Amino acid sequence: MVKICCIGAGYVGGPTMAVIAYKCPDIEVAVVDISVPRISAWNSDQLPIYEPGLDDVVKHCRCKNLFFSTDVEKHVFEADIVFVSVNTPTKTRGLGAGKAADLTYWESAARMIADVSKSDKIVVEKSTVPVKTAEAIEKILTHNSKGINYQILSNPEFLAEGTAIQDLFNPDRVLIGGRETPEGYKAVKALKDVYSHWVPEDRILTTNLWSAELSKLAANAFLAQRISSVNAMSALCEATGADVSQVAYAVGTDSRIGPKFLNASVGFGGSCFQKDILNLVYICECNGLPEVAEYWKQVIKINDYQKSRFVNRIVSSMFNTVANKKVAILGFAFKKDTGDTRETPAIDVCQGLLGDKAQLSIYDPQVTEDQIQRDLSMNKFDWDHPLHLQPMSPTTKKKVHCVWDAYEATKDAHAVCILTEWDEFKKLDFQRIYDNMQKPAFVFDGRNVVDANKLREIGFIVYSIGKPLDAWLKDLPAVA
Ligand SMILES: NC(=O)c1ccc[n+]([C@@H]2O[C@H](COP(=O)([O-])OP(=O)(O)OC[C@H]3O[C@@H](n4cnc5c(N)ncnc54)[C@H](O)[C@@H]3O)[C@@H](O)[C@H]2O)c1
Ligand SMILES: O=c1ccn([C@@H]2O[C@H](COP(=O)(O)OP(=O)(O)O[C@H]3O[C@H](CO)[C@@H](O)[C@H](O)[C@H]3O)[C@@H](O)[C@H]2O)c(=O)[nH]1
């Protein structure tokens, strides 16, 4: 029986390995992690991450051919194929701080593999890493290899949170990069054999190592660029009276452009886009390509602009101050169907409003008060380190209250901000919300989920990203 071990039981390691175990009953899969609470949660009824469909897949194979364990060394020792899916956060100190990927966790995993291995292994990069990381990993593994043969493969993951199980069951493609040598081809085939259990042959792409590593960064840069492009247009729509949904639809019906990923928003979030583009920018700079670096940097600048533009709209609409006004925040996760808050635009919007002394009442169906308080107190990039290395007791923000109901959050509020597109927000009784709010009552829709005209009929003043402006906002000076 082939044995797989995955180091890192996070948003990628957990679901990916659960699906491999589900689809390959002839393979034994162990997912290991240094975080004891995370592994305990994977072994319990309350999994550590919320992902539609994940519970069923895990329950189907757990303790049969899928195991979660903190005994990292034992499972690495026994494995034929070792996936590494650990954090690769943005460096906060030293060379490349604020841009380069921090490979501390990767390096320590590689050193541990080298220490405990007694048999040949295929080591698979599942984490998103800078181009040429495989070369560094190879050096660590082979430096004192005791005659063991290691083959390094790059097999980046393309799943999106909220649809991870769907994406893993039916991927657009699986990408495997390896050395172009007989041993390299053999290793690529071994990994291909795993995915072939359920992925059609023509969707398994094989490339050289560097193409696979770079394709992951490129794919995320292209996706984020589409969002920044439509968000840049949303500002122009507001200035001209065009409607960004109509523009995006008209643009997206060109088959060369395509309709997906053109939803204007308060900005993209998530653990990957910003981190991976910063990483790409750094690699370009290191390779003497400042113009290329500058080009990609602009995607992040527009994203930051979009978030601050949203805050400015709120403050300027509400008589230029939100001091001591109750603002209801509906949605804190970076997108619907996940409890993940890493790099969520809600952090920047809330901090902007708190900077203007607002009182926030936050409701998200999947995010706990503790998480929200941590997010609003942590330093940038701290969130992307293993749990036990994050600050333990952040200072509680007194002006932030978290509630478990949208009606409670909006009661007596001056304004409602929608920051995540949870389906339940579309079905809210806005008449009831209006009746219980201070007047004038404002709605700032950062996800374009509400029917602005219906809300205006009720009496709300409504701002929707990239839509023709409410008369109230039109008369105000433009904000930047
Ligand atoms: N989250 C996503 O949607 C997504 C998608 C594609 C790729 N990625 C990439 O995958 C990688 C992992 O992302 P994630 O979201 O799963 O992160 P995560 O923080 O959820 O999980 C990483 C896990 O690795 C563990 N870990 C760190 N060092 C370890 C070590 N030396 N030994 C054992 N365990 C260790 C941590 O405790 C943590 O549980 C990152 O490089 C990320 O960029 C993420
Ligand atoms: O039209 C759109 C689409 C997305 N978003 C926002 O963009 C962010 C990212 O969304 P999405 O890409 O759906 O989720 P992620 O889980 O971050 O997945 C991205 O990042 C992963 C990590 O690298 C990759 O594996 C995936 O392919 C890639 O889609 C979220 O804040 C979304 O709300 C928009 O604002 N408008």
Tell me the fraction of residues in β-strands, as a range: 5-15%
Helix/strand-derived category reads alpha/beta
Total beta strands: 14
Question: How confident overall, as mean pLDDT?
Answer: 95
Which residue ranges are poorly predicted, with pLDDT under 50 across at least 5 consecutive positions? none
Distance between the ends? 60 Å
Bound molecules: nicotinamide-adenine-dinucleotide, uridine-5'-diphosphate-glucose
Rounded to an integer in angstroms, the radius of gyration calculated over CA atoms is 24 Å
Globally, the shape reads globular
Biggest β-sheet description: 6 strands, parallel
Helix content: 40-55%
Number of helices: 19
Strand order of the largest sheet: 3-2-1-4-5-6
